[in-house]
Amino acid sequence: MRFSGWRVLKEGLTGNKGWQAHWRDATPKSEYDVVIIGGGGHGLATAYYLAKKHGITNVAVLEKGYLGGGNVGRNTTIVRANYFLPGNSEFYSHSLKLWEGLEEDLNYNVMHSQRGQIVLFHSDGQGDAMARRGNAMINQGDDAEMLDRAALRRMVPYLDYDNARFPIYGGMLQRRAGTARHDAVAWGYARGASERGVDLIQNCEVTGIDIEGGVVKGVQTTRGAIRARKVAMVVAGRSSQVAAMAGMRLPIESHVLQAFVTEGLKPAIDHVISFGMGHFYISQSDKGGLVFGGDLDMYASYAARGNLPLVEHVMEAGMALMPAIGKARVLRSWGGIMDMSPDGSPVIDRTHIDGLYLNCGWCYGGFKAVPASGDVTAHLIATGAPHTAGARFRLDRFRTGRGLMDEEGTGSQHNLH
Ligand SMILES: Cc1cc2nc3c(=O)[nH]c(=O)nc-3n(C[C@H](O)[C@H](O)[C@H](O)COP(=O)(O)OP(=O)(O)OC[C@H]3O[C@@H](n4cnc5c(N)ncnc54)[C@H](O)[C@@H]3O)c2cc1C
After folding, report:
1. SS3 helix, strand, coil % of the chain, rounded to 5?
2. Are 415 and 300 in contact, with CB atoms under 8 Å apart?
3. How far is the CA of 184 from the centre of ligand 1 (A)?
4. Phi, psi of 186 (to 5 degrees)
5. Which domains does the chain have, with CATH numbers?
6. Does 408 have pLDDT greater than 80?
7. How confident is the model at residue 275 (pLDDT cuts 50, 70, 90)?
8. Burial of 126 (0-12, 13-18, 19+ CB in 10 A)
């Protein structure tokens, strides 16, 4: 079924009886060419590009809960390509380009909105570092504009420019950055993959990985054993647990990250604003809710809910940036499990087990990575060779030092990325 304006009109005039389920609820077969563990954004996008770009359709995505129930449906939806270091820079640039054609490609409205992201700075030194980052982004072929305090104030007058601790000196604007509706991204990729023959299997937890003589043979699941020539572990916050089923110990820690949304308000914030010093970021959803988030809860956990000290910290940061926010009522908050890597960059690589692949380490930023991650992971699985856009995301970099990408310059600390 294709979505179009004409279709909406026709359905509206005929009682909306012609809409169909967006994907088949498949039952598992005994064998597949490729099994993808994890029905989040990255798993679904991998399945989609395997089918679309490489013609590999005998594929199953195994999801222990429901599609989109993980972090892909829990994030604050920011999409940007403002990375500095080689490796990340070309990868996120590739991802943003895929985002820009995604709705046409999927024939699905993911509400991608290039409303622009502004990253604030609060000293001359930070401004210099920001300009350097902006130059790197422009060299990569992406956009970046420095805004001084006066220009920024004209654009976003509602910030507290004279906060005693964090006076705002200016900001860097990436106009092509913005937001997208997170769960629609999962649904769009799911629909596209299912239409091309991929089996999407929900309520199917992988409980073991079968390996014989160093070669992957399939998986054990709560719905029985499934044989597979290739298996990809694409489970984000659960990466360490699933990799342990293959006897692997990953350099990944799982931490909780919380987010918040207020009651719906009239349009007030028409950009994404990032306040790095307070580790606070905010945008306004199309429904009117102010969507914002902060820092990690700072202890390893698999609980998809957070604790009150961080709630207090986030509210304080919001008040420091934008005192008017104190009048808004918070409607709800939630948490997601983040797969934190030591250098703040992801892993997309084969493992030492033949036919077993790993996609993890997305830290704070895996939503905007979904299109490129799916493309790069599918390329690796289909061709056996890394995609140029993700060639530095090697698993062995933590042992060999080759390809280390310390984006934040904060050293190998999981909880600082
Ligand atoms: C509060 C919050 C805000 C965020 N904000 C942003 C943002 O603004 N921009 C951005 O780019 N990123 C953001 N992120 C990060 C981003 O959401 C994640 O990095 C990304 O969604 C992770 O990849 P995924 O979508 O594949 O993960 P998930 O959706 O978590 O998918 C993994 C799936 O694997 C399944 N699974 C796990 N174990 C098994 C098993 N044994 N068997 C079968 N299935 C299994 C899980 O149920 C889950 O559905 C944020 C995250 C959070 C929590």
Report:
1. 35, 25, 40
2. no
3. 14
4. -65, -45
5. 24-77+183-251+343-400 (3.50.50.60), 113-177+254-340 (3.30.9.10)
6. no
7. very high
8. middle
The rounded Å distance from CA 157 to ligand 1 centre is: 34
* Whether the predicted pLDDT of 166 surpasses 80: yes
Give pLDDT, residue 304.
84
**Residue 42 C-alpha to ligand 1 middle, in angstroms?**
8
Nearest CA to 92 out of 21, 47, 141 is that of 141
Mean pLDDT, residues 216-223: 98
Backbone angles phi, psi at 284, to 5 degrees: -120, 130
Taking each helix axis from N to C end, the angle separating 41-54 and 370-383, rounded to the nearest 10 degrees, works out to 50
Q: Which of 15, 23, 30, 1 has its CA nearest to residue 225?
A: 30
Start-to-end C-alpha separation, the chain: 41
Q: What number is the average pLDDT over the span 205-226?
A: 98
Question: Which of ligand 1's atoms lies nearest the C-alpha of 38?
Answer: 34
* CA proximity to 102, closest of 284, 387, 368: 368
Ligand 1 pocket at CB < 6 A: 37-43, 62-65, 69-72, 74-78, 205-206, 234-238, 242, 257-259, 293, 336, 338, 362, 364-368
pLDDT value at 73 more than 70: yes
pLDDT at 414 over 70: no
Distance 168 CA to ligand 1 centre (A): 33
Q: Which of 283, 296, 309 is nearest to 414 (CA)?
A: 296
- The answer to whether 143 and 117 have CB atoms below 8 angstroms apart is no
pTM of this prediction? 0.96
List the one residue out of 260, 234, 249 whose CA is nearest residue 35.
234
